[in-house]
Sequence to fold (379 residues):
Amino acid sequence: MGVLHDVAIAGDGPAGAAIAAACADVGLDVVVVGPGEPWTNTYATWVDDVADVIDTTAVFAAPPLPALIRTTRDVAVDRRYGVFDNDSLREQLDIDARLRRGFAVDLTDHHGHAAITMTGGSVVEADVVVDARGASVATPVAWQTAYGVVVDEHVVDGRYPLDRVTVMDWSGNEQAAAPSFCYVVPLDDGWLVEETVLAATPAVEPNALRRRLARRIDEAAIEDAERHGRVETVRIPMGVPVDRGTGRVVRFGAAAGMIHPATGYSVAASLRAAPRVAQAIAAGADVHDAVWPASTRRARALHDYGLGALLRLDRDATTSFFDAFFGLGTDDWSAYLRVDSTGREVARVMRRVFAAVPWSVRRELVELDVNVVRRLLRP
Ligand SMILES: Cc1cc2nc3c(=O)[nH]c(=O)nc-3n(C[C@H](O)[C@H](O)[C@H](O)COP(=O)(O)OP(=O)(O)OC[C@H]3O[C@@H](n4cnc5c(N)ncnc54)[C@H](O)[C@@H]3O)c2cc1C
Fold:
């Protein structure tokens, strides 16, 4: 038998890197199997969500800014939001130092330990194998899709503030069904302006989103970005089921369903969960429970209910919904947007939103499941 590692991780995305770094931090011997390709998605987060788990001073592509949310009105949020510089994040998590380049073809759990079999036949053995190969779902509940271009500041100037990140602009939305918002964030060399459908089924295709984007910013700016390859298309499976793995093979990140059903985000969730899971591995505790503790599984059931509601709302109802949502205290809506909030926290926010939306929107929510709504309304 070769080296027996404490932990072997399949998948070198943000989740694999986060859990690897956290395992190393608690003194575990860890190896990551993955292709070692750079991350090309523009990953963003609310800075305070990750401030306790990473060094936030030098990890963003541009200085994080406070946020703006535009519904029927402008809501200024003094919570900073930033896009990661992926190379810096990789470096901080030290992924390359732990990487064994290649693909995992099989993850097994037998004879008292676990193993990753790689293409070519080599085997990496460990006490615990973490499957962080990302979301692979044949039929997600819905898709988040977006079409974005990186443009010069002057394209954004006058349309959106330059001293804030516009996390959502629901104005100027002509589509009644599968409504989209504009997302406007600074990068190190321009601004990403992205037309986004939070969740829809079937998925809204990039061409349709491009047409919507062209109603917001100049066609010439879009074409210029396309000519220079500064385009991002997003397709995120939403409602990916919770799957904690079995035995010595534990799932983590998008592979474990740690994608927030209302935002499509998972990077902050993985960074936040990694120390908890690493500690459980080191202590020989229940690792599956550490990935999805009971309280967060209850929250997830409510988040899934929220996704179902979102899918039913048309443009006007969606705008009213977010009007009410971001009209709550920042602590409230922030808690809703975290994967690791407790069921109690999420239920409280849902009750408050329910109380704040117009009756027309409440009817849509009630139609889904009267019993859930009754529970939500219970103080
Ligand atoms: C364009 C885009 C933008 C996004 N923006 C955000 C954002 O701003 N904020 C946010 O929180 N989330 C964002 N997401 C959503 C989500 O957080 C990401 O999908 C995130 O990458 C999930 O991280 P992960 O590490 O769990 O999975 P992945 O990023 O999918 O990583 C899986 C890794 O495993 C590797 N792999 C796959 N198969 C194998 C195998 N057989 N053997 C070994 N390795 C393998 C892959 O190469 C990959 O590196 C975005 C998604 C997209 C597509």
